[in-house]
Amino acid sequence: MPPRQHLLGLWLLLTGVLLFSGVGVLLWLDSALKLAAAQRTTIWLLCLLPGVLALVIGMLLEKRLFRPLRQFQVLLARLVAAPDAQSDFPLDGWLSPLQPDLDQIREGWRGDRERTRIAHDEGAAHAAYIQQELEGLLQILDLPLLICDEHQRLLLFNPAARTLFHDQPALGLGRQVSQLLPHTSLSEALHHLPTDGTPRQLLLPGDTRWLRCELRRLDARHGGALIVLHDTTHELEAGQRWRRALAELLPRLRGHTGSMHSAVEALLQAEDNVELKHRLVQAISEESRNLAQRVGELTRLVESQQLSQSALEDTWSNDLFQALQERLATQSIKLTAIGIPVWIRVDGPALLAMLELLILRLSASLNTHSLDVEVLLGNHRVYLDLIWAGSPVSEQLLNQWRTLPLFDDALSPKVSDVLNQHDADLWSLMRKPEARACLRLPVPSSLRGSAPRSTDAELERPEFHDFSIADLPPPDTVQAGTPLTQLEMIVFDTETTGLNLRGGDRIISIAACRIINGRLLAQDSFDQLVNPQRDIPATSTSIHGLRNEDVANAPPIDIVLPRFNQYVGSGVLVAHNAAFDLLAVRMAGDECGLTFDMPVLDTLLLSRALDPTFEGHGLDALAERFQLIFPPGTRHTALGDARVTAELLLALLPRLRARGVNTLEDALALQLRVELENKR
């Protein structure tokens, strides 16, 4: 059916021509013939009748045929794109008799889909049970795990891996391991793993950490590998400190020993020289004292090595306090945990022993049997406070406590060793709001922060595995011929200070989500505010709600854009009205030395190509047409718009496939045709 504006134009043109022609004929006849009043009325009616009939017939056709046809077209498009959409409006006009047939087709299709779904669910029940058991196991494993296919694409990663790579935008299903761990040695090792499953060890350097990898070939259909990761940064640093201290101490020990040996030999030979004997005895005595001092240093070094930073683990503060309360119960000391519990990263046994020792000393020194304990979040640290009513303890007393051994053992580590293990120290101060004293111990914080451990079975399970990715074409396949359902697509959106990008407006928010293997990954997203380093006009704030203070502490675009580029990787970009967002990203990329020259799909152009007769192709109109929902408060936010755009694209894919648009090349050609038609 031709576009409504074309039909409307033709109807108005025909009606106008008939009316003006009738008026022209009427004026000519009135001037050429002398007509009576009755004749003039008849002529008027006859001359204006064609125009009036065209007007009435056009209105009738619009109401009874053309509008119902457009409704019918929308219903068919919705039925294909979103078969389960509800609240379908009924047909009216001359198409209303088709309503029972359309209902029958729709309900039959939905019924078939429901029966297929039920059969699929029943058939997959056992597999789902095994999958849930696997997910439950992976959730509690502390070791980061990755599974990749033969093309080194990620098929699985567990929550521990997500925690380890929390600052890496390149972590995601279907992404290549080399994007996450860009080490040639790792790629080569994965290519040459033994087929019998024998593990291989690899140490990977990084900017801020060292990772030990255990690689093992999997005897699976996808021919991939299992990668087990361990962060050995603290372990290596502790080992280096130990070796460095030992390397400094051993030559000094050898020097003192050699000096003593030489002095003893000289003493044996100097039988008659009393003065020389005296000097040699003094030298031997001095060297023996030095040697004893160095042996003491060696002993302290051995003692301190019993505690290593590699033993630090994520610990829930309330679990630590509960264990401490049980140990203090036999000493008749009451410990009360107050405040909000948090995750801390500590060596639990060593910290427990030190806290028990310090509390016993505090109780004896202050003559109290009741203490409060609280953890407070600081900047990259957590402050553990032992609190009492009274005055702080002196620094002299704290120095004495730092030298106390934890256990009755000759090589027992001391309080200072535990403090060094946690890069911490002790100090005592007054807590001003409550006028109570405390003994404060700063300990490392965990990446988990203050979020409690979830026990809610109803929480949405994270998507961290998809073994069907192994069935996708190899990564080096030319994208142009790849089916749309097998592409990795990054759907993105930006918010800016204004619409005049070439005039100085800049990005203030950028967000994206990923579609892989025809699925929108619910928990795989990129969302970042950007400091534009200029004011946000009030007119723009009224649209997206972002103010200057909202982005004041956000990183600038030269920090954000490289991370966004990592998130995009080799995927295909998708946006709604992509020309604007792509211009914003490319102009920012020029400033940062980044290029975004990957293929781009535009859901606005695709919608126009599929429904050229429809008037509304804005994101709001399309969301209403296909019953896509913006969660409250997410419209005109970068991530909210990107997610709805992704759902819109998934809704358009079946309709594109029905018209023979199957590959990326087909979709780009369709977009180009629409662009050229719009320019005419």
Task: Write up this protein.
The chain has 680 residues and is of the alpha+beta class. The chain folds into 5 domains: 4-96; 141-231, 2-Layer Sandwich (Beta-Lactamase), CATH 3.30.450; 235-309; 313-444, Heat Shock Protein 90, CATH 3.30.565.10; 472-679, Nucleotidyltransferase, domain 5, CATH 3.30.420. Helix content is 50%, strand content 16%. Strand 11 (427-431) and strand 12 form a beta hairpin. The protein is elongated and about 165 Å long. The two termini are 20 Å apart. The model is unreliable at 452-461 (pLDDT under 50). The chain crosses the membrane at residues 7-29, 41-61.
Features:
680 residues, 21 helices, 50% helix, 16% strand, five-stranded mixed β-sheet, transmembrane, transmembrane helix, elongated, alpha+beta, Beta-Lactamase
Mean pLDDT score: 81
Biggest sheet strand order reads 2-1-5-4-3
Number of helices: 21
* CATH homolog superfamily of the largest domain: Ribonuclease H-like superfamily/Ribonuclease H
Structurally, the number of domains stands at 5
Instruction: Report the strand count.
Output: 17
* C-alpha geometry: elongated
Radius of gyration: 39 Å
- Fill in the CATH topology of the largest domain: Nucleotidyltransferase, domain 5
Structural class: alpha+beta
What would you call the quaternary organization? single chain
> Can you tell me the CATH class of the largest domain?
Alpha Beta
Low-confidence stretches: 452-461
Share of helix among residues?
Answer: 40-55%
* Proportion of strand residues: 15-25%
Give the CA-CA distance, first to last residue.
20 Å
Q: What CATH architecture of the largest domain would you give?
A: 2-Layer Sandwich
**Major sheet attributes:** 5 strands, antiparallel
Pfam family, one: PAS_4
InterPro entries: DnaQ, PAS-like_dom_sf, PAS_4, Ribonucl_H, RNaseH-like_sf, RNaseH_sf
Keywords: Exonuclease, Hydrolase, Membrane, Nuclease, Transmembrane, Transmembrane helix
Enzyme class: transferase
